[in-house]
Amino acid sequence: MLIISYYIYGTRVVSISDPANPMEVGYYDFYPGEEGLYAGNWGTYPYSSSGLIYSSSMSGSGVHILEYPSPVDIRHTPPRDSENLTDPFEFNIQLSQMPHTPLDLSSLAAVSGLDGDFTDSTALIPLDIAEAYKVSIPNPGTAGQLRYYFRVNDLDGNVITEPYGAPNAWFSFNVGPDQVPPEIHYVTSAEGQGSIRISGEFPITAVVSDNIAIDEVHLLYSVDGAPEVDLLMARTGIITEYQYPDVRYLYETTLTWEDVSLPASIEYYVVCIDSTSQHNQVVSSTNILELGAYELVDDFENGLDKWDLSQGWGESAFGADASLAAHDSPVGDYPDNSSNSLTLSRPYDLSPFESAILSFSHMYLVWPNQDSCLVKLSKDSLNWEVVAAYTGWQVFHVVDSIDITSWTGLGAETVYFRFTLKSDSAQTADGWHLDNIEILVQLPSTGTDPDGGTNPTTYRLAQNYPNPFNPTTTIRFELPEAADISIVVYDLMGREIERLVEGPTGPGYHQVIWDGRDRRGRKVPTGIYIARLLATPTSASAVVAAEYRMSIKMLLLK
Fold first, then answer.
1. Quick check: pTM over 0.85?
2. Both 415 and 474 in a single domain?
3. Which CATH number does the domain housing residue 157 bear?
4. Domain limits at 312?
5. Per-residue pLDDT tens digits of the chain, which is 558 residues long
6. 345 and 262 assigned to the same domain
7. Does residue 34 sit within a domain?
8. What is the four-CA torsion angle of 208, 213, 216, 218, rounded to 10 degrees?
């Protein structure tokens, strides 16, 4: 409670149990006017051992001794909406008396009525538990909003109500056939997600609520336009945080796909149905999960279940953008003479791809030229090859991208990833913090029309897809003949951000993926970017000095 000395408006009591929604629950205004700079209540003292509130006056009306909560505090959980139009509504209350104002408990009653017409007064029945009572509100037998409040008299005959201000304030719930659809508050988003697996899975979480009860929650999804799959989601938890006015339920399931021809996309959405006679339902917006271009291997925000932790890798709070990270020595400095590895439990099939990049954000504090942070790959989980090594004092996060194209194509059906901190017998230090491990891949260019035709007849730069995008987008372009080309990304100020393609390229249908980073591997901010194709034919039949320029606009949304 916030107790305020509010000058000409007296002493005000505001409930701040929900800081985002303060609510006045009581006041005493001992100044009759509405004008004056400091007139009325000059000061309020609410900290007395008796629980009384002392308020002083600047207008000559003396010192006022007040009490809040009111002489009675009645607490209960209001009933949920109901389709019952027959039986009375029964629930319990807990009553607390303040010591300064004795009550006539025989007058304790619940006053109720439909849609603001208070027609019934029902005495509360004491229970065996101290200060506990049973409430029985008559059923109106007609659909509408059933309103109610509690009242009791003190020994002087003064009426005290809960909520404060009744009958102009009340508790309420709806009775009769339910017309209120459930709500979907959250569905796992595909934004920033993707997968490069031919077969895989993607966990989906939904948070829903209803004014009465939830019956079923379904996940519906389609892979590349195939018939929809309907999965019944399982309830796995309840959320009752104070900032939510209702109880929210957690539902989960896993979206799966098998032997998909890449690239592909999966569209999914959630349907929530309540358990009323009307079976009201609500449908979420549609998400699209892209397959075949990008995958966030792990951002370590949900634990380390995907990894073999070797000698005790754990989590640290030193991730990129103040997030969580994987850390080789989470309880102190790394030990001497150790080789501590974080190994991805499942391999990746990189055989369908023409090229691949392994990208990650990291910071490391290891003794220069003594201890090392090693990135390793293997095709059998036995023989490991170091593809990158780091040593020294990198005290803030940087993004490094490693070209692992030599690990794609035939023979790359099982590629394992490992991150190893290796130390010698000298000094030790904090170690290695890893975050946002990603794989970006590119499928081979077929040189033919995706619809089965021959080489294109004109130069063309197609609009990127998806657009808007986050974090990756595919840019397709067509060349009717061999050409020296460049595809460069610029911002709206004309500054060069990244060169995606540079050099001789054969005729056909091609594509390139941009991961939303600049030439130094840094993620660029939300905004509009321009991709520009410059092509100069190199074939013998080409017109001398011919040049083709085309541009598209791309929107990156985070």
1. no
2. no
3. 2.60.40
4. 297-442
5. 899 999 988 999 998 988 888 988 888 888 887 777 788 898 999 988 777 899 998 877 889 998 876 677 888 988 989 999 999 999 999 998 877 778 899 999 999 999 989 999 999 999 998 889 999 999 999 999 999 999 999 888 888 888 877 898 899 999 999 999 999 999 998 876 789 999 999 999 999 999 999 999 999 999 988 899 999 999 999 987 655 667 899 999 999 999 998 888 899 999 999 999 999 999 999 988 888 888 889 999 989 999 999 888 999 999 987 889 999 999 999 999 999 999 999 999 999 998 888 989 999 999 999 999 999 999 999 999 999 999 999 999 988 889 899 999 999 999 999 999 999 998 999 999 999 998 988 777 554 455 555 678 778 888 787 777 888 888 888 888 889 999 999 987 788 999 999 999 888 888 899 999 998 888 898 888 899 999 988 865 554 446 788 888 888 877
6. no
7. yes
8. -20
Give the separation between CA 556 and CA 558, rounded to whole angstroms. 7
> Which phi and psi (to 5°) does residue 407 adopt?
-105, 20
Structure-block tokens of residue 1: 């409670």
User: Where does a domain end: 238, 268, 289?
Assistant: 289
Same structural domain, 423 and 373: yes
Query: What's the half-sphere exposure (Cβ side, CA atoms, 13 Å) at 511?
Result: 24
Helix ranges, 38-183 (H) = none
Tokens of residue 155, six digits: 């020994």
Is the same domain home to 60 and 119? no
Question: Beta strand 2-5 with 314-316: parallel, antiparallel or unpaired?
Answer: unpaired
Closest to 255 in 3D by CA, of 311, 178, 179, 203: 203
- Indicate the residue among 10, 37, 67 that finishes a domain: 67
Overall number of domains in the chain: 5
Q: Does 373 fall in a domain?
A: yes
Residue 487 CB burial class (10 angstroms; 0-12, 13-18, ≥19): buried
Whole-number CA gyration radius for the chain? 34
Q: Is residue 453 part of a domain?
A: no
Count other C-beta atoms under 10 Å from residue 87's C-beta.
10
Give the separation between CA 268 and CA 481, rounded to whole angstroms. Answer: 40
Site of tokens 């901010």: 525
* 250 and 199 assigned to the same domain: yes
Instruction: Answer whether residue 449 is part of any domain.
Output: no
Q: Bridge-partner residues for 434, per DSSP?
A: 326, 362
Q: Say if residue 302 is in the same domain as residue 415.
A: yes
